[in-house]
Write a structure and sequence with these properties.
10% helix; mainly beta; twelve-stranded antiparallel sheet; globular; Porin; two-stranded antiparallel sheet; 14 strands; 3 helices
């Protein structure tokens, strides 16, 4: 990966590089999809999901994912998948990404068919929804950073405001030909860890693992906007735990999650 690497590659184009059916095709990750010395966690998760979802034909929809960020990912990446168990309505698929330094991402994806149920429960307090952004107030990050692929209002985080909760509308610039679940997995990790809202100065933080559950049967939104909400509910001894949720432009819950984040401050 060089400073002259192509930064115009879209998420859909990256996903198309993934192998299918357990193949290990090389993926060339441009600098514009990185954060520092590693791949952006959302894009690496989307790549692993895409490879897993193509391990065989006619998999049901994704319901849950467990993601471990095991090491840095850069250079030429490969995705390797393995069917752990295939039942009549559920499939457990392991998907891993390898880079120049070896294993960088380990995921377990659970695909499950919809079922008729007698019990339904919807008991999650929504965040305060800011207005949907206007086109004239949008901007992106620097070209060498993954946020150059996205649009948002203001800063993703304002360190002058001490808060344990971050809530922002975020969207990809290029959204054509995307599986909406891959888009959600990419965007779900687009905010900094919410522990950064409590720090007095810039410090190194690193997501260690991520549990995400897809709530919506058919995820969709208007004009690509997803509201990402993240709240640190515990931090001590260099490890924080945060709850997360993703909502669409109609204020409908799409996914819930939780991350463990290491911080050095």
């Amino acid at each position: 990966m060089t400073k002259n690497a192509d930064k115009t590659v879209t998420l859909a184009e990256l996903l198309n590089q993934c192998g299918k059916g357990g193949e290990a095709n090389p993926i060339t990750l441009p600098e514009g999809w990185t954060q520092g010395r590693t791949a952006f966690g959302g894009v690496s998760t989307a790549l692993a999901y895409h490879a897993a979802s193509h391990i065989e034909d006619s998999l049901p929809g994704l319901r849950s994912a467990q993601i471990a960020f095991t090491g840095p990912l850069f250079g030429a990446l490969t995705a390797e998948t393995k069917m752990l168990r295939r039942g009549r309505s559920t499939a457990f698929v392991q998907s891993e990404l390898f880079g120049d330094k070896g294993l960088g991402l380990h995921c377990n994806f659970i695909f499950a068919s919809e079922r008729e149920t007698a019990i339904q429960s919807h008991d999650m307090t929504p965040p305060d929804f800011p207005p949907l952004p206007n086109e004239e107030e949008l901007h992106s990050g620097p070209p060498q950073f993954f946020t150059s692929k996205m649009e948002f209002v203001g800063k993703r985080i304002d360190t002058s405001i001490k808060t344990n909760r971050l809530t922002r509308w975020m969207r990809l610039k290029d959204r054509e030909y995307l599986d909406p679940v891959a888009e959600i997995l990419c965007m779900g990790d687009s905010l900094p860890p919410s522990i950064m809202g409590l720090l007095d100065k810039n410090a190194m933080v690193s997501s260690m693992n991520w549990q995400i559950n897809i709530i919506a049967d058919h995820p969709a939104t208007t004009d690509g906007w997803w509201l990402i909400d993240s709240q640190t509910h515990h931090a001590d001894h260099g490890a924080s735990s945060q709850f997360m949720s993703i909502w669409n432009s109609d204020q409908q819950l799409i996914a819930t999650g939780m991350q463990s984040v290491a911080y050095y401050a």
